[in-house]
Amino acid sequence: MAYICPLCNGMQFDQVHCPTCQGDMQDSGRYMDFFDDYSPYLEIDGMKKADGISNDLENHQCPHVFECTLCKSQQMQIINEIFIP
Questions:
Q1: Which residues pair with 68 in a beta bridge?
Q2: How far apart are the C-alpha atoms of 12 and 84, rounded to whole Å?
Q3: DSSP line for 1-26
Q4: pLDDT tens digits for the chain (85 residues)?
């Protein structure tokens, strides 16, 4: 039994529009993977304790960075994880 991110696992593709220019935004990956070179290789739940986002571990959420394909602006979106029995 576990919670998994549907975006990280290719089960969902969110359509996000840029708040600046209304262009399409693409998922650039998990927010915590941008901290340093080794972040993508560290334990996810441990990184959630130090990512500065309150309760993402307890609420089973996965913060992702999205980048606009037109103006290159970035924004973070919280993705709700799903329970896999």
A1: 25
A2: 15
A3: -EEE-TTTTTS----EE-TTT--EEE
A4: 799 999 999 998 878 999 999 999 999 999 988 888 888 888 888 889 988 999 999 999 999 999 999 999 999 999 999 999 9
